[in-house]
Amino acid sequence: MSNRRTLPVLEPDALELDVVVPCCPPLTERTLTAAEAERTAAMFKALSDPVRLRLFSAVASAPSGEACVCDISDVGVSGPTVSHHLKKLKEAGLLASERRGTWVYYRVEPSVLAGMGRLLTGAGPA
After folding, report:
1. What is the dihedral of CA 69, 70, 71, 72, to 10 degrees?
2. Phi, then psi, of 106 in degrees rounded to 5
3. Which end of the chain is more exposed for a tag (fewer CB within 10 A), N or C?
4. Rounded to two decimals, what is the model's pTM?
5. Burial, 29: exposed, middle or buried (Cβ in 10 Å; 0-12, 13-18, 19+)?
6. Based on C-alpha coordinates, what's the Rg of the chain?
7. What would the pLDDT profile of 35-58 be if each residue is shown by its tens digit?
8. Measured between alpha carbons, how far is residue 85 from residues 46, 55, 121 in Å?
9. What do you get for the CA distance between the two ends of the chain, in Å?
């Protein structure tokens, strides 16, 4: 019995991992669709916790554009709780992560800050 399987070929657009489509148009442009409102609410819900907001801020403001969990975990809660909060930020599409050895490095997804700013102010790139 063979364990071989055929994998699908991805279109070039699917391989562009750095392209993140902003969740929604500016709030002043038109009423959000139900799907846009769900995505936006998930982002804001993830950021509504003070610990998550501090973690997101630590990653977003890191000089190198990414932060090791070992450098941002001093937010007044235990290590497992930090992991839980980082997981919630990832699930909301706000962070991406990469394991390097025993540590995990986090970065803000491309266009997230610009997309959030555009949503609230109507400014920024389309």
Report:
1. 50
2. -115, 150
3. N
4. 0.71
5. exposed
6. 17
7. 888 888 888 899 999 999 999 999
8. 8, 8, 27
9. 52
